[in-house]
Each structure stands twice: as C-alpha cells, then as structure tokens.
C-alpha cells in the first residue's frame, strides 16, 4: 500500500516544488526590482529549458508509446485552448501579469479609444491635414467637453491655452461687440493658441448646448517631446484654414474618409507615453483574481506533465528545473502589476501561496489520471499539455525575454536548452 501511494505523493511534492518559485518570484516582485537584463536572462534560460523538456520529456515518450497522430491532435488542442482561455482571462483583467499581455491590452485599448473618437470627429475635414501618425498621437490628449448655451469658451484678451473641436452644437465669434462669424459641427477654433500661446483675438460663445473635444496646450507641449512633427502638422491645419478663408473659390480636397480613418487606427503605437495617472487607471482595471487564474492557466499544463512523468516512472529533473526557473520572472512581473493595481503585499503572497498549493494538487490529479487513461489518451493528454506550454513560450516568455534583453538572450536560451537536455539525456 505504501509503495502504491508513494508515486502520487512524489507527484504532489514535485508539483509543489515546481510551483514554489511562484512564491519566490512574488516576494522578489514586492521587495526587489531586478534589472531588465537580469530578468531577461532568467526568462530566456527558462524558455530554453522548457523547449528541451517539451521535446524530450513530453514529445519523445508520447511518440514512442502511441505514434505521431496523438501528438498532432494534442498539440493543436493545447495551443488552441491556451490561446482562447488566456485571451478571455486577459479581457477580464488578467492582462497585467505579463508585459506582453499588458502591451497587447494597451494596443487594443488605444485602438478602441481611437475608433470611438474618430466616430465623432472623423468628419472634421481640416483634421485630414494631419498624417495618421500625428492624428493618433493627438487622440489620447483630447478631452470630451459638454457646455450649455451661453458658455464662453474663449475670452478675447485671455491667454490662449487650448483649442476646440466641435462635435455637436453652434457657437458665435465676437470681436468686442461685433459678431464676426458662426461656428458649427465639424469646425475647430483656438488652434493658434497651441503654437503661439498668445492672447485670444476674439470671444467664442456657445449659442446652443455643445459637445466638443478640447486639446490642452500643456498636454500638447508634453507630446511634442515625443512627436515634434506635431508642430508642423498643426501648422498645416493653420495653412489650410487660411487658404480656405482667403480663397473662397477653392474646391475642398477630396478625402477618402474610410481610408484615412483606417490609416489612423493602423498607426496605433504602444510606445506613446502615458501619464502616471493613466497608468494607474490602467493597472486598476486589472483584477487580482483574473491575474491569479491566468497564471494558473500558464502553470496547469506544467503541473499535469509533472504528474504524468511521475506516474510513468520519469523523475523529470530537467522539466522540474524548467518549471521552477520559468515561474520566477512570471510571478515577479505579476506581483509588480498587482502592487501597481493597489493590492496589498499580504494578499499577493496569499494568492501565490494558494497557486502553489493548487499546482501541487493538479500534479497529483495528473498522476491519478495515469491509472485510468488508456495509453493513447494519455499520450494525447501529454501532447495537449505540451501544446499549451509551447503556446505560452511563444506568446509570452520568448518575446518578453528578447524585448528586455535583446540579442544577449540568445546565449541564455541556448544554455537553458543544453542544461535541460543534459539532465533529460541521463534518464534515457
């Protein structure tokens, strides 16, 4: 009886040991901020060890026992399940657990934001003087504004500190007591202020309730540090406005609105800086539970393989080492994200402690499955776990390692692969 129980116990212990680095990574994320190159080296080494372990401790045994087709079906199923589930988890607030998923979330967030704004201001033809990249840089700076009839938007003689884009409503321009012109939906005013900061040359007053977007000079000047070409873009707007004013017979340029709109959306960049407040709001839109569940999804396939290997007699030292190492940077970055979202250190440690226990139980479950599944089904289950692990390596670990460490991660990956291969080869 003791001998029968020893294998499940070994699987449980190995699952706990492999996942224990989650807790270690969480502690490091709370008390220490390692350099990008150090984190990249660990992540690249872990990627190399996992690639080798998948090849020699999952793929090779499954192929030897059941042939090629269980591998095809299992790897395809594992990769698909991982991608679908992780996408759902990210959309529920788990995106901040990885830098790569955070960047994807920010990219889609900015695309959605740009699409919403363009739906409202895309008809303002003068904006088409801006290139798509310039327009995309301005969109995050636009602040929606609602005013009632009679509101003074610009006061003659006051400092010029913003420009306005009219979405709906009407306004009038006055010079002293003299009415100069009327403004309506699709027009802009106050743009000279962004370039010169000079005093307002006229008063603009709303004659109806209005919906506008305001572009503040302080925000615009800050963005010029990132995209100095915006100044020339605004100059083109002024030149076009002057040309349309002085050449009343000139025909408006024909513009393909849909094409211009799509070009703006395609020019979305995640490298455009965001303010500390914007980042805080982004972090707070994440959910600690979703972060935890997302990390478990990353670790469930690994824990299952640990259980499978214990059940078929493989100690799986290389795979256990790969899991232990790869968990450290993941938990570290996730914990940093949780801290930014306002989660307490105690809760972070409690969540990761729970993740370690759950991973151990998953490994135990994987071991128990060995006793009830046929050899073919077991091979497919192993391949499914392998496909999910490869999907995780391809979508998070390797891209993040290269982004943080550049070409130097090449040697860390090779070292991880060779060390894992050396440990795995001793089992054959």
**Globular, elongated, flat, extended or rod-shaped: what is the shape?**
elongated
| Strands, total number | 8
The portion of residues forming beta strands comes to 5-15%
N- and C-termini, Cα separation: 29 Å
What is the makeup of the main sheet? 4 strands, antiparallel
Helix count from the secondary structure assignment: 15
Q: Which runs of at least 5 residues are low in confidence (pLDDT < 50)?
A: 248-255
Label the structural class: alpha+beta
What report would you give on this structure?
There is one protein chain. This protein has 428 residues and is α+β, with helices and mostly antiparallel strands. The chain folds into 2 domains: 253 residues, no CATH class; 155 residues, Sandwich (Jelly Rolls). 68% of the residues lie in helices and 9% in strands. The chain is built from 15 helices and 8 strands. The chain has a 4-stranded antiparallel β-sheet. A 4-stranded antiparallel β-sheet has the order 2-7-4-5, with no helix packed on it. Strand 4 and strand 5 form a beta hairpin. The radius of gyration is 29 Å and the shape is elongated. It starts with a helix and ends with a helix. About 2% of the residues have low confidence.
């Amino acid at each position: 009886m003791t001998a029968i129980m020893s294998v499940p116990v070994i699987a449980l212990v190995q699952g706990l040991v492999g996942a224990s680095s989650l807790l270690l990574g969480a502690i490091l994320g709370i008390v220490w901020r390692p350099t990008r190159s150090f984190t990249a080296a660990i992540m690249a080494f872990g990627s190399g060890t996992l690639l080798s372990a998948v090849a020699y401790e999952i793929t090779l045994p499954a192929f030897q026992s059941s042939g090629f087709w269980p591998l095809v079906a299992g790897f395809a199923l594992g990769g698909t399940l991982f991608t679908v589930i992780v996408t759902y988890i990210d959309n529920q607030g788990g995106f901040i657990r990885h830098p790569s998923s955070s960047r994807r979330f920010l990219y889609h967030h900015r695309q959605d934001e740009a699409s919403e704004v363009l739906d409202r201001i895309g008809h303002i033809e003068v904006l088409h003087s801006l290139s798509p990249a310039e327009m995309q840089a301005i969109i995050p700076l636009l602040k929606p504004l609602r005013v009632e009839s009679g509101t003074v938007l610009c006061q003659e003689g006051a400092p010029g500190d913003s420009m306005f884009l009219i979405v709906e409503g009407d306004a009038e321009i006055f010079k002293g007591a003299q009415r100069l012109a009327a403004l309506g939906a699709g027009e802009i005013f106050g743009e000279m202020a962004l370039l010169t900061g000079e005093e307002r040359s006229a008063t603009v007053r709303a004659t109806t309730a209005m919906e506008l977007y305001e572009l503040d000079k302080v925000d615009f000047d800050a963005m010029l540090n990132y995209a100095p070409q915006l100044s020339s873009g605004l100059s083109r707007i002024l030149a076009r406005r002057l040309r349309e004013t002085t050449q009343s017979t000139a025909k408006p340029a024909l513009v393909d609105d849909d094409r211009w709109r799509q070009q703006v959306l395609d020019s979305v960049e995640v490298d455009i800086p965001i303010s500390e407040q914007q980042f805080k709001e982004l972090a707070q839109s994440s959910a600690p539970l979703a972060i935890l569940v997302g990390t478990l999804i990353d670790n469930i396939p690994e824990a299952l393989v640990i259980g499978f290997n214990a059940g078929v007699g493989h100690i799986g030292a290389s795979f256990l080492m790969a899991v232990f190492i790869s968990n450290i940077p993941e938990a570290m970055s996730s914990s940093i994200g949780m801290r930014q979202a306002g989660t307490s250190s105690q809760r972070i440690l409690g969540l990761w402690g729970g993740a370690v226990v759950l991973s151990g139980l998953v490994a135990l479950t994987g071991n128990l499955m060995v006793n009830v599944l046929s050899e073919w089904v077991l091979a497919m289950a192993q391949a499914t776990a392998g496909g999910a692990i490869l999907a995780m390596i391809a979508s998070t670990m390797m891209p993040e390692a290269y982004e943080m460490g550049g070409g130097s991660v090449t040697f860390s990956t090779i070292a991880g692969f060779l060390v894992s291969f050396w440990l795995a080869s001793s089992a054959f």
